[in-house]
Amino acid sequence: MTYDLWYWDGIPGRGEFVRLALEAGGIPYRERARQPDASLVDDMQAPRKQPPFAPPYLVAGRLTLGQTANILLYLGDKHGLAPASASGRYWTHQLQLTIADMVAEAHDTHHPVAASAYYEDQRDEALRRAANFRAERIPKFLGYFERVLDGYGDWLAGGRRWSYADLSLFHLVDGLLYAFPRRMGAVAGRYPKVMALHARVATLPALQAYFSSGRRLPFGDGIFRYYPELDGD
Where are the transmembrane segments (predicted)? Predict the structure, then answer.
C-alpha cells in the first residue's frame, strides 16, 4: 500500500514527524499537498465519517488517521517501528505524546496568545513565555529524556533498533537547535545521551537519501522559528 500524507506544503511542521517514520521505515507514501492536482483545503472538506481536525493526516486505503501521535502509533504497529510487546508499544506512544507536549510549548514561545495573530502583535508576551521555556521547560523535558535513555540505553524504547519516538526526539532537538541556538549551546552538555541519540539518527543509512533531497523542508515559518530576541543563555 502507498499511503497519502497530507500536510501544509512549505514547512516541516508536525508532518515532519510522520515523514521521518515513513522514510526511515522505507514505507511508500505520497506527499499529496505537493502535487499540482491536489488541494489540502478541498481534501479536508471532503465528506468523511471520521474527518481529521487538522493536518497532518494519513490516508491508508479507506482509513483516515489524524493527529501525529496517532498516525505514528498506527505506523509503529503496522510496520514494526515500535517494540512488538503491548507494553513496549504503549511506552513508545507515551514518549511520543510527551514529545508532542514539548512541541506545543516550543510553538507557543512565539505565539503565546493566539495562533491566528501575528508574532509582532504578541511580542511582549512571547518574550516572557520564551524566557520561561528556556529556563525551565527545556531542562525539564530534555532532562526527562536523558533519564529515559539512562535506563534504556541507546534508544528510548530499548533494544538494538530505533523506534518512531527516537526519530521524533531527533526532530525535536533539531528544532530546538534551530530556534534556540544560544540556549541549546549552553545546556546541551547536560544531556549527552539525548545529543548522542540526535547524532545517531542523523547518520541512519535509511534517512540519508531523504536528508540530501529537496523533499526535506528547512525550518522557517512553522513550529520552530528563530527570533534572536527569544533566545538567550
Answer: none
Residue 170 C-alpha from the chain's centroid: 8
CATH code of the domain covering residue 59: 3.40.30.10
Q: Give the torsion through C-alpha atoms of 178, 221, 36, 33, to 10 deg.
A: 80
Per-residue pLDDT tens digits for 63-97: 999 999 999 999 999 999 999 999 999 999 999 99
CA dihedral 43, 16, 233, 142 (to 10 degrees): 110
What are the grid coordinates assigned to 138, written together? 527545556
> For the residues 135-161, what does the mean pLDDT come to?
97
Task: Please name the residue that has the C-alpha cell 481529521.
Answer: 52
Domain assignment of residue 217, yes or no: no
Domain range for 70 is 3-79
Would you give the DSSP letter of residue 205? H
Among residues 61, 57, 58, 69, which one has the least CA distance to residue 94? 69
Residue 158: inside a domain: yes
Give yes or no: residues 187 and 95 share one domain: yes
Question: Which DSSP letter does residue 58 get?
Answer: E
Q: Is residue 227 part of a domain?
A: no
Nearest to 191 by CA among 141, 156, 230: 141
